[in-house]
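Contributing new records

If you add data, match the layout below exactly. Sequence lines come first and carry their own label; structure lines follow with theirs. Keep one chain per record. Anything else will be rejected by the validation script.
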Amino acid sequence: MPINIPEPSRQNIFDAAFRELDDFQYLTKSRPENADLMDRLIEHPDIGAKLREHITNEKVRTYIKDTIINRYAKVRTALPREIEDYIETICTDTLYEIDYIANDHVSFHRTESNGYYAIARSKHRHTSWPIALRNLLFYLARLPQCPPEGCSELVKVLIIFCHGVPVNSGDKEIVVKALSHADVFCVWID
């Protein structure tokens, strides 16, 4: 049976939990460290105590873990649609978005100088960037004409978001090198 906590109480609980998770840097910590935080969230007056006003004590831990923390991880690791700030080292022109495929996290842009940028977004995991590369290449393959008529350049970019999780420089370098063989610029965002 779903747990329904009335608004605005639910939002206040989520806001307090998100603040605690952000302050703790939850996404960068180990399992034992996160387990300690879970105990603190359960006892927190604005989180666990407020939840106990609406659900039984036995369900508080499960609710925090399965509902609040899962939502937090999704929100904090979401891939952004707006990417201009992340690629300013590659593109100094203004980008005009032509197309965006949300499910694939791929966008297609035109510049004032008639250049085109195909941009994919990925999370830092080792299995994510190859999928993002595939999505980018499949997107380009599905275009009726690629490069578009009058195109001065077609630049392929893969932006990899680490969301605070450290990735060693050797791993970054090998991914950048691999992507360069496919003429894809790689940008790592810590």
